[in-house]
Design goal:
Length: about 170
């Protein structure tokens, strides 16, 4: 077994091993410091692995080498306690065709060819302060709101033999 620790002329230390490098801390924490100030810890908590940025309001940033450039993909933002995806980056679910992404203005949901975005029965999609809602129960689709404005740039097509019913009494059908 060979293990080597070299102090370089720059003041850096290189730890080089022919096999694994094992850090075994019986106190449960591996603490990273810079100039004596703790910046992060790896902690064993009942065999749960905790990665923690210990400096107030600082982030944990994930970068990759994307075509030769260091590119941020995501970060845990300590200031707002949120997971942030970098603008234009995607969260891929299942196959690469199923993604969620944002560009700072819009959120995009993508699915593969002939795929659907499924909302379970009796779970609604609400707008604003929940005053407007679209919900299905597996049979009927309900669109609720104070006024429902249908603004089409062409015709609104209702299939032959299907009618438009007003309350329960009047019906228009082709």
């Amino acid at each position: 077994k060979i293990a080597e620790i070299d102090s370089l002329s720059s003041g850096s230390i290189t730890l080089d091993a022919e096999a694994d490098i094992i850090l075994d801390a019986d106190g449960a924490d591996i603490i990273f410091k810079d100039a004596g100030t703790s910046i992060a810890t790896f902690t064993n908590s009942s065999t749960d692995f905790i990665i923690e940025s210990v400096t107030s309001d600082k982030d944990i940033i994930f970068k990759v080498n994307d075509g030769g450039s260091s590119t941020e993909v995501a970060r845990f933002d300590g200031d707002v306690s949120a997971l942030l995806m970098a603008s234009g980056k995607k969260i891929m679910l299942g196959a690469a065709e199923e993604t969620i992404s944002g560009d700072g203005t819009d959120i995009t949901f993508e699915v593969g060819s002939s795929g659907d975005i499924n909302i379970p029965a009796n779970i609604g999609l609400t707008f604003g302060d929940d005053g407007e809602k679209i919900e299905g129960d597996g049979t009927d689709l309900t669109i609720a709101g104070n006024n429902i404005n249908l603004t089409a740039v062409a015709d609104v097509n209702i299939p032959s033999g299907v009618g438009l019913t007003f309350a329960t009494a009047e019906k228009i059908e082709s």
